[in-house]
């Protein structure tokens, strides 16, 4: 179990990136969902030992990672948001170089280990290709290969599907799901689909606070019979948004196809029909309801909601 208690990070300025985060992450896949600038990458860097928190506790199976960050390294696999590769090295040479930097050893040698890891992420066919010839998804799989070296107990992946095309994203989903059977995988993302496809449980974070801890099913069930969809002429859209809780608006055939949240007993605009809620609806409503951070930079811990 990975546990975070009252985790705070204040950068010079001062800028408060984390405001008292409390979170328990069990074995398996767990998502951290939030917009850019919410504090996700700061949290990932603290968990990976790249950044010290201002205050708070982080433990993995009872081991204090704030006081002893070096104790995490043998148990950690990390795929950061931006991972630099040498473009003119082959995939197998790049992977071997990364394993040497990490100090990874193997009974049968690094060459054999690299071959095993490349096979595991389905890159054997491209082992001798230069990395510059890899697609975005192939580079991400190469990043996962280095993260898996040493069979880590904790695998952290930060925005892993950003920029991937739909086919590569689906392939990467299957790979991450496979990894989560054997360890704790913490997935940080701003893409709602990532969480919907992969995470039995997830936390929503904004302004450095955990706003909710829930599951995709619970988040959608909380909006049962409260989502409606209809069309609104472009000229009337601004006034409509003032009068109703709009979750999404997409231009379709010259008109705005709009989804709104209407609590039981709330009047529904003419022409709007009830529609099943989506996880994106739940997420966007949470973002609308998220309070702005206080003017003071002093962080104050908050108790996250369970469900939505």
Automatic annotation (TrEMBL):
Alphabetized UniProt keyword annotations: ATP-binding, Nucleotide-binding, Transport
InterPro entries according to UniProt: AAA+_ATPase (IPR003593), ABC_transporter-like_ATP-bd (IPR003439), ABC_transporter-like_CS (IPR017871), P-loop_NTPase (IPR027417)
The UniProt record lists the ABC transporter domain at 2-232
Cross-referenced Pfam families, in alphabetical order? ABC_tran (PF00005)
Q: Which PANTHER family match?
A: ABC TRANSPORTER, ATP-BINDING PROTEIN
Name the SMART domains on file. AAA
Query: What's an example of a GO molecular-function annotation for this chain?
Result: ATP hydrolysis activity
Identification of the protein by name: ABC transporter ATP-binding protein
The opening ranks of the lineage are: Bacteria, Pseudomonadati, Myxococcota, Myxococcia, Myxococcales
Q: Organism source for this protein?
A: Corallococcus interemptor
Checking SUPFAM superfamilies in the record gives: P-loop containing nucleoside triphosphate hydrolases
Is Nucleotide-binding set as a keyword in this record?
yes
- Listed Gene3D superfamilies: P-loop containing nucleotide triphosphate hydrolases (3.40.50.300)
Q: Where are the transmembrane segments?
A: none
Entry's family note: Belongs to the ABC transporter superfamily.
The answer, when asked if Thylakoid is one of the entry's keywords, is: no
